[in-house]
Design goal:
The protein is α/β, with parallel strands linked by helices and 236 residues long. 37% of the residues lie in helices and 10% in strands. It has one domain: Uracil-DNA glycosylase-like domain (Uracil-DNA Glycosylase, subunit E). It has eight helices and six strands, in the order H-H-E-E-H-H-E-H-E-H-E-E-H-H.
């Protein structure tokens, strides 16, 4: 089904209740809250994509954080992973500000669209294969309205695998052998000029950023490479 516009699609995404386990968890978290966010009204619904409809770069994550996007209502907003990511997007010319705390805080993206492979916060941050596959059509529908994507920045192994499934769902031939994920790895199908390429990076989780597995310079380099691959002008 073709959705008439992104606003209509967003309304359908945020009303989705297709995965009973995810519905129960996201709503339980929203009701019980974390003590430090006790005064906040949690979003507690699926999270739509966000960004520039003319984007050439797709940034694909795993799933909303229980007390991040599940609280704020916008992907990667309100948690440490998002703090790290949006600061990098600002430094590399994709975002108009370096911070993202709430869905209506004035953040705007240019040249990039951000979404997640799974739209609801999963228990232990681990969606099942069925939940992953059930969410896939939402991303396919989003890209129907964000048609100029040239490269997908995959935040971690899960997103890399999801991006390959997304390409197949969009009608592109699945690569054989399957390309392997790695930080800074670039993969393109030279025989498929209509499909987008993949660019891997370690996920900006605290587990990676606090230990130095992923540094600011490493993520900035990946995002600058994404600009180059997508044909966007470089930033200083």
């Amino acid at each position: 089904m073709r959705h008439p516009d992104l606003a209509a699609l967003e309304a359908e995404v945020t009303a989705c209740r297709r995965c009973p386990r995810l519905v129960a968890w996201r709503e339980e978290v929203a009701a019980t809250k974390r003590a430090s966010f006790a005064a906040d009204e949690y979003w507690g619904r699926p999270i739509p994509g966000f960004g520039d409809p003319d984007a050439r770069v797709l940034i694909l994550g795993l799933a909303p954080a229980a007390h991040g996007a599940n609280r704020t209502g916008r992907v990667f907003t309100g948690d440490r992973s998002g703090d790290f990511l949006f600061a990098a997007l600002h430094r590399t010319g994709f975002a108009n500000q370096p911070t993202s705390v709430w869905r209506d805080d004035g953040l705007a993206l240019t040249g990039a669209w951000i979404t997640a492979a799974v739209r609801c916060a999963p228990p232990a941050n681990k969606p099942t294969p069925l939940e992953r596959d059930t969410c896939l059509p939402w991303t396919v529908a989003e890209l129907d309205h964000v048609p100029d994507i040239r490269v997908c920045v995959c935040l971690g192994q899960f997103a890399w695998d999801a991006a390959l499934r997304l390409r197949t769902a969009l009608g592109h031939v699945a690569p054989k052998p399957k390309p392997r994920f790695g930080h800074g790895t670039i993969w393109y199908d030279d025989a498929d000029s209509a499909g987008f390429g993949l660019l891997g990076t370690y996920h900006p989780s605290q587990q990676n950023t606090f230990t130095g597995v992923l540094t600011e310079d490493m993520l900035d380099d990946v995002l600058r490479t994404a600009r180059e691959l997508a044909g966007l002008p470089p930033v200083p």
